[in-house]
Amino acid sequence: MINTLRLRACGNYSSLGEVFEVLIDGTPLLELVKQFEQRFDPHIGGAYRAALGLDDISKRMLENKATLMPLACDCGQWECWYLLTQVYCTDDYVCWQHWHNPYRDAQSTQHWDYREFDVFTFDKAQYQAEIVKALR
After folding, report:
1. Quick one: how far is CA 15 from the chain centroid?
2. What is the pLDDT of residues 38-95, one digit of tens each?
3. Is 0.90 topped by the overall pTM?
4. 74 burial class (0-12, 13-18, 19+ CB within 10 angstroms)?
5. Cα 75 from Cα 26, distance rounded (Å)
6. Closest of 71, 60, 62, 78 to residue 100, by C-alpha
7. I need a labelling partner for 21 at 20 to 30 A (CA). Which of 42, 61, 129, 132 fits?
């Protein structure tokens, strides 16, 4: 399945500056993550806010094997709690996969396993157009 990406400006986040909400097929990424994480802890699952900054958008979104942080802690200190994904690029597609929260990785006493969380595959032309739109 090919997904569509939308980046919606949503204000500033402490030291990250202007940030963008990620929507996948029209659904906020935060909602998808919250639904998934609530199986691990219904109280803190999805305790994030949008954190994809202009630096990530302009430099890392099209860099093969780059790490992105689309979501950070809702407390206002992004270092507190965040979700990462890796970007994989081909000639025609861009995938986001290998999701993880470093505070809940295999070394943690409360491991949250993201292997079953969705891999998002985007048409590279649509993806690039969304990046250009966000940078305007």
Report:
1. 18
2. 999 989 899 999 999 999 999 999 999 999 999 999 988 888 889 999 999 999 999 9
3. yes
4. middle
5. 25
6. 71
7. 42
